[in-house]
Every structure is written in C-alpha cells, then in structure tokens.
Model the fold of this input.
Amino acid sequence: MSGPVRFTRHLIAVLLIVAAVTALTVAWAHSSEASWLAGPGPAAHRRPPTQIQLARRHADNGPGLSLSDSGDLIKTALIESAIAAAVIALSALRRQRRRMTRGTS
Amino acid sequence: METVKTTGAAPASAGTAPARRRIPTRTRLDFWFDSALLIAYTLAYSLGFTGLAVHEWLGLGIGLALLLHLTLHWDWVVRTTRRLLSRGGRDRGIWLVNLALLFAMTLCVLSGVLISRIALYQLGIGVPGTPFWVSLHHTTAQLTLALVPVHVALRWRWILSVGRRVLRRDPGKRSQ
Done:
C-alpha cells in the first residue's frame, strides 16, 4: 500500500471514531440523562445567547494575549510538570524493582 | 510514540567525528509535532493568559492537529489493540491512558466548538452553547490536564532519547 493511500485510510478510521464519539455525545446531550452533567433546573433549559450578546462579549474579551496574566500559564505548566514527574518517578521505581527481582532470581 | 528508530549513516567527516546514527525524518517529525502540540495545549489551557479569542482558535487548531497525531500513530493503535486482545500486554496502561485521552480530547474540542463565542461567530456560524456543553467542556478540560502529562510521561524514555539527539548540535556544522 502506498504512503498517501495508507495515510488516507488511517485518517478515515480516525474520523470514524471521532464521529462515533461525537454522535454518542450529541445523543447524550438530547437525552434526559443530560441533566446529570448540566444540573437540573431552569439553567439546563436556558436559551442560547443571541448574536448581539455574542458580539458584545467579543468586544469585552479583547483580541490578544494577556501577558500580565502569565500566572495562569505558569500554574498550568506546574501542574503538568508535577504530574509528569510523579509518573516518571513511579516508572523508574518499577523498572528498578523489576531489575532487582531479575537480579536475585 | 513507539521505539526509537535509527538508521546507520556514514560519518559526516571521516576520521574526526564519531560515527553518528541519523534520526529518521518520521521520528524527527513526531518529536517536533508532538512538542508543538504540547505547547499549544498548555497555552490553550491557560485561558487567563491567552484570552478567549486565542483560546478558541488554538483549540480549533489543536482539534485538527490531534486528528493528524492520531492518524500518524494509527499503526501503534492497531498493533497494541490486537496484542491486548490476543494475550494482554505490557502496553495496557499506556493504551488505557491513550483511550481515555482520546475521549476526553474529542469531547473537550467538540464542546469547545459548541460553546464558542468568538471563533465560530467570526466564521458566521451560530452554536447552541447550552449549559450541558459548558459543563462538559469544563469537566473534560480538567480531565485532559490530568491525562496529557501522564500520556507524555509514559513515553519519557523515547522523548529523552530522541530529544537528546535532535537537540544536540553538530560540532562539525558549527565550525563551518
């Protein structure tokens, strides 16, 4: 199988999976079980915002990066680093233990 | 994502530099593409830093990049799934994390699109933006923040090994 054909086949497989997940979630959103996530009450049935409201929100939010709020970025990077470090430490520990077991047997 | 692939290559300058193994283009592509994806994800998660407009456009870009990432690693998905179904395997943990991440990322991007206030509005598309999709976006975003570092860390040996060679400067090239 040539490269582009192979790539296309793989892409189609990925798109099918994503489409299946999307379809299931849309079905969930329209079922009575949706309140399990969104919470009961009038908020769950609130109307979506109008285009004018959306335009106003757009103006409020500003278009660019807020470099002064880099604390948010640092927090995200720290959380990621901490979780990754914990997984790497566990993995190294397991590997070491496996080696020791192999060495004694 | 998989093992480090290397090919034997003749030394650049015979006699002076030690024989180095060349990194295949595909491995190099994986390294840089996945690094860019991780940086983009970290930025997109930091909504206070990026602002809503950049957050939404980055999110859409990440959605497309994830399709490509999964397509490029589809062989691994098929191979590992077959191995797990036939006799179990040592990649079970990684496979489960990746599966959870696939669901979480798909739902996060999908719900992000459906609650978009700026990006889709600029494209002239109206979206429902109901509380269900807002809650789903928040929940799956938190899930991805836990799963992405695990996904990366489970491949730390590959990252270290390829990263070391990709980022190493060639002394022969520098002096020219």
Observations:
- Residues 25-166 of chain B form one domain.
- Chain B has one domain: 25-166.
- Residues 47-72 of chain B form the longest helix (26 residues).
- Chain B has a mean pLDDT of 83.
